[in-house]
UniProtKB/TrEMBL annotation:
The lineage of its organism: Bacteria, Pseudomonadati, Pseudomonadota, Alphaproteobacteria, Sphingomonadales. This is TonB-dependent receptor. Residues 1-33 form the signal peptide. It is a multi-pass membrane protein. Keywords: Cell outer membrane, Membrane, Receptor, Signal, TonB box, Transmembrane, Transmembrane beta strand, Transport.
């Protein structure tokens, strides 16, 4: 049994198909194309050397609809085009990862294997969104091609849409039937004309084995070098056929669990003893023209407006801190800082807001989860019936669940509290100091470590069912394929937040007094409502107080999202021209998307929640909601419908030895959105196989669209707490609430997508070598984007966006401070770069049995410019910004050897050095120009790249059983320091991971 290791990035060339190139097919479509059965045999001998052709991608023929032994045809699934006739060559670069590559990478989730491709930038996963409370995207595996976002990448399962796992509309890859996936096609280019909305960055299409026969399984375990993130994966699949091979049944089930990483304790100690965290911070000196940089990038930054168990932050007693027992002591400021003891809370010798070093025990960032805990369970089944030769009806069902848990941060930071000196919880020494200083209250900050850490739990459940028919029929003397299906999907997303405080109850509980010899809440209305006094000096609050401020029934959100799709596609070649058959594809689709969300009354508002029996009325709370410290979910619902039709054609232009072979491909699609009207998408491209052996030129340009999703149109307001939001009007940090709301006036984004490239593959004089270089450019206008809360406030402060001044109130005496954030068709994105791919396959290296393969893929991002569209702002180029997801260079390389007994794999992942931001001017003290908003000065504008080495291998115990291992990040490379804690979109935050398992196939 030959067991190939490594990713098979196969780019195939189809010209005149011969028996020596029997598996070379093209990118295919959901509509069925069929090749003679002789082309479905296993490629061997000299033909095997073409498996790394870097021109067009595909894997072997798919989805037999009739008995291959009877000489029937087979379907070819071609991603990126609806044309399915044999001999069509697509102009769009596509990368294919087959089942053996997925297995060799030995990941607990197929998503991780695909996301390693250099053209995928900014994909989400278990290590992203762990710092949030309210997004609901924790552990959501979704792809982002070209860095333009997961919402602009269309992900398909067998060429069909999948219901979103979040109101943004992106599906969760971890809910797919992973063991039955036999290949994944990644189309690096716009495909809206062929597939509809969202395919701006490209398409990722998972192709399942619908005709699998036998029983196979996989059992895998893993653990990190730090003894955490324990992993277990159990997969089982089976397939059979009966009734004279006319009924085909496949099924799979899967259980996976990853324990996650973190969070750690307060200070700088991360989970598992990871020592790379340094509390790096970008400090704003707020001085623009003194010859020194405005921004300083520093390690061990200590915020001086709170500590772990409390700190008096201003006035005569500034610098008095409290230990866990509540005893006062003099706080140790870093940078040899000395409290100024003024009303502003300044610290002499420190930077604004921060000192360096000193007592770092109160820092909260170390409490963040580095990876969400995740548990996956899914099952899949498909039954197909060949009602006639080359014609099938089928039904599929996919039911899955993903549950996650993460800790966004340590504690529940409250930096700006006012405490009365007469509060009976204030230690006697401090009360005496108040009397001596002649004050009755003081400013106080605490990370509230005594309250424990907030936990976010998500539960996503997907129910997806498809009924369809596909096949081939002869019409007017020519064969036409058809593919039609109806899909209904429902996704339930539950979010529950535990151990989080109700802000107004907290405010009342800390305001204590003595009544009849007992310590009680000072407000009689609060007392009548059950208020229990809270001692926030130290770490020993009473359980009664904790139960009052953090009730067991915390914030929650319940979302139901549905998707219904009816799709009909036809493809055929009704006539021929001088160079070959002219192919056509046409079809139509109807899609309806709907969602409804319900939240708890304390977050959404009591009057907006029909069932609030579990939440008794409390006059201290705001009836309109926003009562939680974080996780203030809202109610909402919305729906939209899409009607569309398309036509696509492929016209051969040349087919001769002297001129080569060339074709032109074009498509047009008209789409009507119920919310925004009609929009057109189109593409035109072609390929030319030069008469020079092995060379091909290809190119395509397209107009692509992305319609606003349910979240952007109808978002229930998502509320996020901003505990240290800077108010430039008063020059102070405040506690504010960010409300993200929808906008039903949004229109589709319009993109212009172009690629052009040249490829060399498998020539007669250099067999086994393939090299391709493709240039791409994507320009998107009317981009749906929201300004950040800080941008809205700052642009108002600078009088650049006066209209935004009504969107916030940071000195609200009638309720919490807030900033409303809403999406608009404001921005544009302009990105361009190169894809480079190369591979070489050496059979029987140095006379040894087996194959040695070297492959490499690289993406260079020349620019990634985002323009907010606002007056007074300049476009921001984030190419090479390593705090984001678009480094200048990113590559993946593999070297693998395999024979009938064992396989070995070495893999390198690398991305280039970068910067914190291209807008910064790096300079040193004494030689800095004046710092401006668009060109601020900074002392260090550098973030290093990273190199990760992975190794793996397998051993065939028997013909049916294979044992394997994999070690990721073999060198245990730490992530680079970042002013934003860490960037898991680029850097490995886990450390070295060991995995091992056993596969069987009977």
């Amino acid at each position: 049994m030959s067991n190939s290791s490594g990713l098979r990035f196969r780019r195939w060339r189809l010209g005149a198909v011969s028996s020596a190139a029997i598996t070379t097919c093209l990118i295919a479509s959901p509509a069925s194309a069929q090749l003679p059965a002789t082309q479905a045999q296993e490629q061997s001998g000299a033909a095997a050397a073409t498996a790394a052709d870097t021109v067009i991608t595909t894997a072997s023929p798919q989805d037999t609809v009739a008995d291959p032994e009877a000489g029937a045809a087979q379907d070819i699934i071609v991603t990126g085009s609806r044309i399915t006739t044999g001999g069509y060559t697509a102009p769009t670069p596509t990368t294919v990862i087959d089942a053996s590559a997925i297995a060799a990478n030995a990941q607990p989730n197929i998503f991780t294997t695909i996301a390693q491709l250099p053209s995928l930038q900014g994909s989400t996963g278990t290590a992203t969104n762990t710092f949030s409370t309210s997004s609901g995207q924790q552990g959501l595996s979704s792809f982002s091609l070209r860095g333009v976002g997961a919402i602009r990448t269309l992900t398909l399962l067998d060429g069909q849409r999948v219901v979103g796992a979040n109101v943004t509309g992106v599906p969760d890859i971890s809910l797919f039937p992973q063991l039955l996936v036999k290949r994944v096609d990644v189309v690096n280019g716009g495909a809206s004309a062929s597939y509809g909305s969202d395919a701006v960055g490209g398409v990722v299409n998972f192709i399942t084995d619908t005709r699998y026969q036998g029983v196979k399984g996989n059992v895998q375990g893993g653990i990190t070098n730090y003894g955490d993130n324990e992993q277990v994966l159990v997969q089982l699949a089976a397939g059979t056929s009966f009734f004279e091979d006319r009924v085909h049944v496949v099924a799979s089930t899967e259980y996976a669990r990853e324990e996650g990483i973190g969070g750690g304790e307060f200070g700088i100690g991360l989970a598992g003893g990871r020592d790379w965290f340094r509390q790096s911070t970008l400090i704003n000196r707020n001085v623009l023209n003194d010859g020194s940089p405005q921004y300083l990038f520093r390690d061990f930054a200590q915020p001086y407006n709170y500590t772990k168990f409390g700190l008096i932050t201003a006035g005569p007693l500034q610098g008095t801190a409290f230990d866990q027992a509540g005893n006062p002591f003099q706080f140790q400021y870093g940078s040899n800082g000395t409290p100024a003891r003024d009303a502003a809370g300044s610290v002499t010798g420190c930077f604004p807001g921060f000192c360096l070093g000193g007592d770092l025990s109160g820092n909260v960032d170390a409490g963040r989860s580095l990876q969400s805990r995740i548990q996956r369970v899914n099952s899949y089944g498909r039954i197909g019936f060949d009602w006639a030769p080359d014609n099938e009806i089928y039904f599929t069902g996919n039911i899955g669940q993903v549950k996650t848990r993460n800790q966004p941060v340590g504690g529940q930071n409250r930096p700006n509290l006012t405490i009365q000196c007469a509060n009976p919880f204030v230690p006697a020494l401090v009360q005496a100091a108040c009397a001596t200083a002649g004050i009755t209250n003081f400013q106080y900050g605490t990370s509230n470590a005594a309250l424990g850490n907030t936990q976010v739990h998500t539960d996503r459940r997907q129910y997806r069912f498809v009924a369809g028919a596909k096949g081939r029929q002869s019409v007017a003397g020519s064969d036409w394929t058809y593919d039609m299906y109806y899909e209904h999907g429902t996704n339930y997303s539950d979010i529950d937040v535990s151990n989080i405080l109700l802000s107004n109850r907290f405010n009342q509980a800390i305001n204590a007094t003595t009544l009849n010899g007992a310590i009680v809440c000072a407000n009689p209305v609060a007392r009548a409502g059950g208020c229990q006094p809270l001692n926030i000096f130290g770490g020993n609050p009473s359980q009664q107080a904790l139960d009052y401020i953090m009730p067991a029934n915390g914030p929650y959100q319940r979302t139901r999202q549905t998707q219904d799709v009816i799709s009909v596609n036809f493809s055929g070649s009704p006539f021929s021209l001088w160079a070959g058959p002219v192919s056509f594809a046409f079809g139509a689709e109807f899609r309806h998307e709907y969602y409804r969300v319900r939240a708890d009354p304390y977050g959404a508002g009591i009057e907006n929640t029909p069932n609030n029996a579990a939440y008794p009325f409390d006059p201290l709370l705001l009836p309109g909601g926003n009562n939680w410290y974080a996780g203030n979910y809202k109610n909402g619902q919305g729906a939209y419908s899409v009607k569309e039709a398309f036509v696509e054609t492929n016209i051969p232009l040349l087919d001769s030895d002297g001129a080569g072979r060339a074709n032109i491909n074009g498509a047009v699609r008209v789409t009507d959105y119920s919310t925004s009207g009609t929009v057109w998408a189109w593409k035109v491209g072609g390929t030319w196989d030069l008469p020079i052996d092995g060379f091909r030129i290809r190119g395509v340009t397209s107009r692509d669209v992305r319609a606003p999703n349910l979240s952007e149109l109808f978002a229930a307001p998502v509320t996020t707490t901003l505990p240290n939001f800077f108010d430039p009007f008063r020059n102070v940090n405040v506690l504010a609430i960010q409300n993200t709301i929808g906008n039903t006036n949004l229109t589709p984004e319009i993109a212009r997508n172009s690629t052009a490239g040249i490829a060399f593959s498998d020539s007669k004089w250099l067999p086994g070598l393939s090299v391709s270089v493709d240039y791409y450019r994507i320009k998107i206008k009317d981009v749906i984007s929201s300004l950040g809360a800080g941008d809205i406030v700052n642009l108002c402060f600078r009088n650049i966006l006066p209209a935004g001044c009504s969107a916030f109130n940071l000195n609200n005496t009638n309720g919490p401070n807030f900033i409303n954030v809403q999406a608009f068709n404001l921005a544009s994105i302009d990105t361009e770069g190169f894809d480079i791919e190369a591979s070489y396959r050496w059979q029987r290296p140095l006379g040894l049995p087996g194959n040695f393969t070297v492959r490499a893929l690289a993406t260079n991002i020349r620019k990634f410019v985002t323009d907010t569209g606002l007056p007074g702002t300049i476009p921001n180029d984030t190419a090479g910004v390593n705090t984001g997801s678009t480094p200048d260079w990113k590559w993946l390389a593999q070297q693998s050897y395999s024979n009938d007994d064992f396989s070995l794999l070495v893999q390198e992942r690398w991305f280039s050095d970068g910067v914190l931001g291209n807008q910064y001017v790096e300079c040193g003290a004494g030689n800095c120009p004046a710092s401006t908003t668009t060109r601020p000065t900074i002392d260090q504008n550098f973030m290093p790249g990273a190199f990760y080495l992975d190794i793996g291998g397998s051993y065939n115990v028997t013909k049916e059983i294979t044992a394997y291992f994999k070690v990721d990040n073999l060198l245990d490379r730490d992530p680079a320091k970042s002013p934003f804690f860490v960037n898991p979109a680029l850097y490995d935050v886990y450390g070295r991971i060991y995995r091992a398992g056993v596969r069987f196939n009977f």
